[in-house]
């Protein structure tokens, strides 16, 4: 019995040794492992932190404001009456934007931008008052048409939240605040004296009024999407709503000033803009 056990043990040992040598031989016959590169499945890998510069071209699809106001001076009583324009509108124009910023990580970034745009204001004011002083006849009532160009240069600090990258596309939201330098050109004005409630009748040209300029608080809200063109370059497609505080538009004419008027004649109530922009962001270092 003991001899049979010993025989079985020797057989098992022989099998184990044989399998060990076979495994070692197979290992020596296998080729060395190959390091395969990692493959990005979500498109081009973008840089997640660093400084960047940007440039944008946009268009104001809507420039809006409540009706601007103007003051009429009565030299006989040395008093002022404030009125609003009966009709008004602002033109829509191309916008330019440039700036620099920093990407903190894949979700947060901030930048400082310069924004430029222009617009033209056109307004109509219908007033019932004698025109004899201006025309030498008995016409009553006057209607003034005013046109005035303006430009604005804004400096804003902005912050953004990127909402993740999917197939190279990164949606984002943002907000900014700063100041805008608003410069109004001189008023181009014509008047009509009439005897009815509608504008018409005797035409005469009134003295032009000088435009005003001022610094104003400005804020903006943004939303959009960027696309990774390369690791360091992104195309940016966005919408921006911005609000510029109200301020002075134009002063009194030389005739009114000589009669005793002083200060500001016209004021706007601020500008709100709806703007679509396309631009490029470049990571620099």
Automatic annotation (TrEMBL):
<dbReference type="Pfam" id="PF13505">
    <property type="entry name" value="OMP_b-brl"/>
</dbReference>
<feature type="domain" description="Outer membrane protein beta-barrel">
    <location>
        <begin position="16"/>
        <end position="247"/>
    </location>
</feature>
<dbReference type="InterPro" id="IPR027385">
    <property type="entry name" value="Beta-barrel_OMP"/>
</dbReference>
<dbReference type="InterPro" id="IPR011250">
    <property type="entry name" value="OMP/PagP_B-barrel"/>
</dbReference>
<feature type="signal peptide">
    <location>
        <begin position="1"/>
        <end position="27"/>
    </location>
</feature>
<keyword id="KW-0732">Signal</keyword>
<protein>
    <submittedName>
        <fullName>Porin family protein</fullName>
    </submittedName>
</protein>
